[in-house]
């Protein structure tokens, strides 16, 4: 195991990590605080499975916890939207698409020239995309992707801050690989138990 850091370095890392985590929490409306919770959950799960905690598993735990926190908060916020708002948005999107139909670039028209069936295909596509099922499917998929991306960004920031603070507590980097034994006597003791 690598030697522990000196007490002044540990104190500086702990205070710096906590200050950075507080700053990240203030900037992200507290969502960065989900990262250390996710790291702890990852460590507990790995310990129960008799596996070593690594920086990668800590990062995954931080990102997943932050993404879930963002998803739950978004769901709760969307419940407060007045009834009929999403239907109004859907109808506005349909109207905007009808007023300004998508233009196919010339390059694509040369590759696949329009045929007599093109207007019928476009009408069928428009009728399909105008259904509430497609609207909700695309809305939910977009929200999940947004939560994943924001979770990765905010979770990474929280993970970095919490890792620095954990260095201050432990005196070594959490999840660091153990150093190999220094001499033959250490190898013998390790082999014989």
Descriptive terms for the model:
single chain; 193 residues; mainly alpha; 8 helices; 73% helix; 0% strand; elongated
Brief write-up:
By secondary structure, the chain is mainly alpha-helical.
Write down the overall mean pLDDT: 87
What proportion strand? under 5%
Number of strands: 0
Q: Give a quick account of the main beta sheet: strands, pairing sense, barrel closure.
A: none
Number of helices: 8
**What is the H-and-E element order?**
HHHHHHHH
Rounded to an integer in angstroms, the radius of gyration calculated over CA atoms is 26 Å
Q: What gross morphology would you assign?
A: elongated
What does this structure look like?
- With about 190 residues, the chain is an all-alpha fold.
- The protein has 8 helices and no strands.
- Helix 1 runs antiparallel to helix 7.
- The protein is elongated, with a radius of gyration of 26 Å.
- The mean pLDDT is about 85.
Map the helices and strands:
Elements: H1 7-27, H2 34-48, H3 55-78, H4 85-99, H5 106-111, H6 118-129, H7 132-170, H8 184-192
């Amino acid at each position: 195991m690598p030697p522990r850091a000196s007490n002044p370095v540990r104190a500086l890392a702990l205070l710096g990590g906590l200050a950075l985590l507080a700053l990240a929490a203030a900037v992200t409306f507290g969502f960065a605080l989900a990262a250390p919770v996710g790291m702890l959950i990852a460590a507990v799960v790995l310990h129960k499975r008799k596996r070593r905690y690594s920086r990668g598993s800590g990062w995954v735990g931080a990102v997943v916890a932050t993404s879930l926190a963002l998803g739950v908060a978004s769901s709760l916020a969307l419940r407060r939207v007045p009834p009929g708002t999403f239907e109004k948005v859907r109808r506005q999107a349909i109207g905007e698409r009808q007023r300004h139909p998508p233009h196919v670039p010339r390059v694509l028209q040369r590759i696949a020239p329009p045929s007599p069936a093109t207007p019928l295909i476009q009408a069928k596509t428009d009728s399909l995309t105008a259904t509430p099922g497609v609207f909700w499917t695309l809305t939910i998929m977009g929200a999940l992707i947004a939560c994943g991306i924001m979770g990765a960004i905010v979770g990474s920031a929280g993970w970095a801050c919490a890792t620095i603070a954990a260095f201050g507590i432990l005196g070594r980097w959490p999840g660091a690989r153990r150093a190999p034994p220094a001499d033959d006597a250490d190898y013998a003791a390790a082999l014989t138990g």
